[in-house]
Design goal:
2 domains, D-Maltodextrin-Binding Protein, domain 2
Length: about 230
Amino acid sequence: MLKKSAYMIFGKIDYINLLPFHIYLKKSTLTNALKKSCEYKKSFPSHINSQFKKRRVDGAFISSIESNKKYIKTLPLGIVAKKHVTSVLVKKNTKSTKDPHSATSNVLAKVLGINGEVTIGDKALKLYLENPEDYIDLAKQWNTRYNLPFVFAILCVNNHFKTYKKLSDNFKNNRIKIPQYILKKYAHERKIPPKEILKYLSLISYEIGVKERRGLNLFLKKSRVFK
């Protein structure tokens, strides 16, 4: 086991769906010393899962399928699709293939019995906006079938639990406004119009309450057969 670091190393998934949280971290009213100690390791979900498991990051949004371990400490904050999400897709009339950047979404397709090429993240959002009729929205299918939101990831902690809890609580109690310059930057980098980014973010929530927990537990129960 690695020694507990004096620095808070946060595993950053640089997708649009976590943009409000990343903005909050930058603007946090916590001490300057703490803000300076927050270091980011940017990567995609499946790699961040591995980094967290190896304790190379102190906290991260971990794929829900990987968060259900007795030794993992979690907080009631995650990436939640209220109904549809437009960034977790299966392409119609294609051979079933996994997205190597995903963990949860690949299993979700199996749980729902939907075959085809799985694509997630900002790439998926762009594809959906270009040709929505070519794709199946997995979160929408889940909600239609079970009338529950779908939890894609949960904030998990290895070290500095109290600090992450404070960050989590404060984030839930703040309305995050995305500065125009950051919105334009993401729009340029991801080739997605600003208005579509804002529309997409309106489909996502972050607090894991009773209904979200029910949806998560149902998914974890149904996923056992595919492990």
